[in-house]
From TrEMBL:
<dbReference type="InterPro" id="IPR019757">
    <property type="entry name" value="Pept_S26A_signal_pept_1_Lys-AS"/>
</dbReference>
<feature type="transmembrane region" description="Helical">
    <location>
        <begin position="31"/>
        <end position="53"/>
    </location>
</feature>
<keyword id="KW-0645">Protease</keyword>
<dbReference type="InterPro" id="IPR019758">
    <property type="entry name" value="Pept_S26A_signal_pept_1_CS"/>
</dbReference>
<keyword id="KW-0378">Hydrolase</keyword>
<dbReference type="InterPro" id="IPR036286">
    <property type="entry name" value="LexA/Signal_pep-like_sf"/>
</dbReference>
<keyword id="KW-0812">Transmembrane</keyword>
<feature type="domain" description="Peptidase S26">
    <location>
        <begin position="29"/>
        <end position="204"/>
    </location>
</feature>
<dbReference type="Pfam" id="PF10502">
    <property type="entry name" value="Peptidase_S26"/>
</dbReference>
<dbReference type="InterPro" id="IPR000223">
    <property type="entry name" value="Pept_S26A_signal_pept_1"/>
</dbReference>
<comment type="similarity">
    <text>Belongs to the peptidase S26 family.</text>
</comment>
<keyword id="KW-0472">Membrane</keyword>
<keyword id="KW-1133">Transmembrane helix</keyword>
<protein>
    <recommendedName>
        <fullName>Signal peptidase I</fullName>
        <ecNumber>3.4.21.89</ecNumber>
    </recommendedName>
</protein>
<dbReference type="GO" id="GO:0009003">
    <property type="term" value="F:signal peptidase activity"/>
</dbReference>
<dbReference type="InterPro" id="IPR019533">
    <property type="entry name" value="Peptidase_S26"/>
</dbReference>
Length: 223
């Protein structure tokens, strides 16, 4: 009986094994998986669906003001897949009047935003600040002129530009703030592969001078 008692006492003296915090590890893993999935989804959306941009200059006034934040539809002109040429699942081509975001042809690290004036095959001409497409006046309701002077074409093509034919797969673009826009009149055409998408809505706008939001611009469609 004494031996049996000693054995029982020895067994009861053994330290209890520490339980592993399996539940805590499981929660951490779930959070990590959720974060990774969210990041991947954000990357896919940004690359193929919608991307946000901020307006840094006044070349598109008064359609777009400095401090406007907008969303760009990246799939309407077709999705670009890294490593592949061309676009896939295209809904339509850019058309006259579209406001597009594109890589600046002279520096692809910069994004520009302008309005499409001429599409492939169109003949574009500027005479005394007025734009003609295929011989007809193109009077866009968003066009503004903030400089009273007229610049002779011998100095630069802002107000006078000889007729040019838009090449295949290319577009002639201009800013709505015609007198203060550096656009196709100066550096030529935008090729289709440089276009990132169609600007379609303002989701935020900040007036830096007045230090307050432009509430009337938030949620406004871009046309």
């Amino acid at each position: 009986m004494e031996d049996y008692k000693n054995v029982c006492e020895d067994k009861s003296a053994e330290p209890a094994k520490e339980l592993k915090p399996a539940k805590a590890k499981h929660i951490v893993r779930e959070y990590l998986e959720s974060i990774i999935i969210a990041v991947l989804l954000a990357m896919v959306i940004r690359t193929f669906v919608v991307q946000a941009f901020k307006i840094p200059s006044g070349s598109m006034e008064d359609t777009l003001a400095i401090g406007d934040h907008l969303l760009v539809n990246k799939f309407i002109y077709g999705t670009k897949i890294p490593g592949f040429e061309g676009r896939f699942l295209k809904i339509r081509d850019p058309k006259q009047g579209d406001v597009i975001v594109f890589e600046y042809p002279e520096d692809p690290t910069k994004d520009f935003i302008k309005r499409v004036i001429g599409t492939p095959g169109d003949v574009v001409e500027v005479k005394n600040k007025r734009v003609y497409v295929n011989g007809k006046l193109y009077a866009n309701p968003h066009e503004v002129h903030k400089e009273p002077d007229t610049v002779p074409k011998e100095y630069n093509p802002r107000d006078f530009k000889d007729p040019v034919t838009v090449p295949a797969n290319s577009y002639f673009v201009m800013g709505d703030n015609r007198d203060r826009s550096y656009d196709s009149r100066f550096w030529g055409f935008v090729t289709n592969d440089k276009i990132k998408g169609l600007a379609f809505i303002k989701y935020w706008s900040w007036d830096k001078e007045k230090m307050r939001p432009r509430f009337g611009a938030i949620g406004k469609l871009i046309n």
